[in-house]
Design goal:
- The protein has about 300 residues and is mostly helical.
- About 60% of the residues lie in helices and about 10% in strands.
- It contains ten helices and five strands, in the order ααααββαααααββαβ.
- The strands form two sheets. Strands 3-4-5 form a three-stranded mixed beta sheet, covered by helices on one side. A two-stranded antiparallel sheet has the order 1-2.
- α4 runs antiparallel to α8.
- The relative contact order is 0.13.
Length: about 300
């Protein structure tokens, strides 16, 4: 598993290029948001979300450096699961910051803090800072929406949860930008609470994404059944593989888990057969490279639950 299958080497290289482009373009978004943030809580929350959107790209690039490395004495199975660890790190960061921002914006609502947006001088003209904030928010919608849409099909080709989550977050980032714009316009029309309400919505969105991703990452690290890219359900390709294996060896007990982007299967109660079906037959219409290992456990072998 430490060597990337030929079928995904090209999209894997493309994914790395796209993540470098993500870091560049999202850094310009963060800079624009920081320069126009002012005293708006919604802008501050949106800025934090844009900064957090850099984490999946960074963790993907770090994991991509380790994944193809050869096994070592201390890591005899290689580093394919570093992708899972990266996914968990990104999820924990999202959850922690989302919870903090939600608490902060809720407290501002309870304390009835009135945000102020000042005037700034531009080329001799007085301009309300809120219009600059809205321009930055519009920019923060356009850039990630384009990047996320381009990244999504590559993530699906690679079966990469970090990249897929990153793409979905960016594709749906228009909600954050729209909430921020509503908050700024609320200040303009005299609704002081609109800013904190928009910040609460953004923070809740961050927290929800973080908790959802933590569940999927924990399931993989705990050797749970392979999860679908788009949710916490068992992935359809894993279920189809389990059914095929069960049909071929009906007296065995089939177990599947996920190791990074790969599937690992065990058929218990079956002696290793002399002839195995080829990968294409086992995987059917699904990509054959995903099945990285299939092992057999003969009847009578000691299992953990057999130990008193």
């Amino acid at each position: 598993m430490n060597r990337l299958p030929q079928e995904i080497r090209k999209p894997f290289r493309r994914a790395k290029r796209m993540e470098w482009w993500t870091l560049f373009w999202m850094s310009t978004v963060v800079a624009a948001m920081f320069l126009t943030m002012g005293g708006s809580q919604a802008m501050r929350s949106a800025l934090f979300e844009d900064i957090l959107s850099l984490i999946p790209a960074i963790t993907f690039l770090i994991a991509a450096q380790f994944e193809p490395k050869s096994p070592t004495d201390k890591y005899p199975f290689g580093f394919v699961r570093v992708n899972s660890l990266a996914f968990l790190v990104a999820a924990v960061a999202l959850t922690a910051v989302g919870a903090f921002l939600l608490y902060e914006s809720a407290m501002n609502l309870l304390m009835a803090e009135h945000p102020t947006v000042a005037l700034v001088e531009i080329s001799g003209y007085s301009v309300w800072m809120g219009w600059l904030m809205i321009a930055s928010l519009v920019y923060s919608i356009i850039v990630p929406a384009i990047i996320g849409r381009l990244k999504l099909p590559v993530a699906e080709q690679l079966y990469d949860k970090v990249l897929h989550t990153d793409a979905l977050m960016q594709k749906a980032d228009w909600q954050t930008g729209l909430a921020g714009i509503v908050g700024i316009l609320g200040i303009y029309f005299g609704y002081w609470w609109a800013d904190s309400a928009a910040a609460s919505f953004i923070a809740f969105s961050i927290l929800r994404d973080g908790l959802s991703n933590m569940g999927k990452a924990a399931a993989e690290l705990l050797d749970g059944a392979p999860r679908d890219l788009t949710g916490s359900c068992i992935s359809p390709e894993a279920e189809r593989l389990r059914q095929r294996l069960q049909r071929i060896w009906p007296s065995g007990n089939v177990r599947l888990r996920e190791s990074g982007r790969y599937l690992v299967g065990t058929v218990e109660g079956i002696h290793p057969p002399d002839d195995l079906p080829d990968l294409e037959e086992l995987m059917g219409e699904d990509p054959s490279w995903r099945l990285a290992r299939l092992s057999f456990s003969p009847p009578g072998m000691l299992r953990r639950e057999d130990v008193g």
